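Researcher: Structure for this, please.
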Amino acid sequence: MQNHVLNYLDQIVAEKPDKIAFANDEEALTFAQVYDQSRAVGTFLHGQGVYKKPVVVFMNKHPREIAAFFGVIAAGDFYVPIDEEMPASRIQLILENVQAQILICDAMTRKIAEKFDFGGKVVLYDEICQTAVDQEALEDIRRRAIDTDPIYIVFTSGSTGVPKGVAACHRSVIDYIEQLSEVLEFDEDTVFGNQTPLYFDACLKELYPTLKFGATTYLIPRDLFMFPIKLVEYLNDHGINTICWVVSALTMISAFGAFQTVVPEHLRTVAFGSEVFPIKQFAAWRAVLPQAKFVNLYGPTEGTGMCCYYRVDRDFAPGEAIPIGRPFQNTEILLLNEKNERAEQGETGEICIRGTSLTLGYYNNFEKTNEVFVQNPLNTAYPELIYRTGDLGRYNERGELMFVSRKDYQIKHMGHRIELGEIEVCANTVEGVRLSGCIYDDKKGKIVLYYVGTMEEKELAAALRDKLPRYMVPNRMMRLEQMPLTANGKIDRVTLKQSYQSK
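Model: Predicted structure, token format:
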């Protein structure tokens, strides 16, 4: 039975040592190089007496950063990725939370790292990856490993402004990779185009399947996501056939007319998630790639990435939403109403997850962990944890799970309970709207819709009055040249709200 994520690397390096595993525009690492460098890093950490501890990895997005992750795991530790695009205050909070003994950096991040209040040792990857490998020590570490040992901590945003570190273990990651690989049908010919930063759990979709199948992952330069035509050309130049991107990264290509100039020549699998895909933009992708497989994915970081999927098998009308479908094998979705009972057909309830995919909880934060990792209310016979996602969903007439909105996006306006996500979906169907984001002014009781597009604000208001009940029509429309996005490519609603409040 597999109990360690690096078993994937051990097996594939014997089969394909010279094949490129991870690459960017500067360097490519073969499986043999990833194997050798990670074992050297693991040996170095062992020599420092760091075992079953967090190790901070602060490097630029690069194949060597991935090898550093695996080196931390080889030492029996768990990696904590941070990035220079994070606010300095956030990085400091993370360092204070994990209290790591070692911070691994590169030549470019070293000067930044030295500015933080960090009591441990700062080391250069280029130096420690040359450590002579201690085979006996690494084998002993592996023998003592169990599948509930943590392998990473990924920090998400906390409602109080304090980031929460989600700790995941071998067991949940292996389960996730096995189920995801079956759903998306990865194989040795898969060529991934990675979009997400490496300090998000979303990159798991590429990192570990690359090891499992001997595939190849290209780390796409961040700046290309501002230039749709160049981005598609990059996909073509590198033979990328599989992408697992956030919706906003896909809509940026289709909404800004890139397909009129160039189309993806090799794409066969397009997985998407994190946000609702506007149907007119989704239709543009399907028209360009009629033979490709499109899969909607859903899942929170606390559930080790994605836990539900829907293989698109039919057309959707402009006002419809694409289902999130059904859970992966070995995972159950409990849709619970306000009485903690199973929601009836068509009734909205909170999406809750049970199964092996659950992570260990929040690092050094038992209070927040106990708020959302709770006893299954449907099981009164023995202890069984579920994770309450805070997302609302319902089952449609086909029995498919539909994402409704975040609990945070549900408001009470003019006596009605409203999902802000429904307003966004409606606005995105209007010709002349490329992307929209909705917020609520609690103090003034106003719904505010921000959008990117060619339509005038008054015209959009008129169009929405024809599509929405009066109480759901936004009180203000505000056109933007560019929608603010988070580092992961999602609509940054916090920035939208701050921008509105400052006016």
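Researcher: Any notable elements?
Model: The mean pLDDT is 92. The first helix runs from residue 7 to 15.
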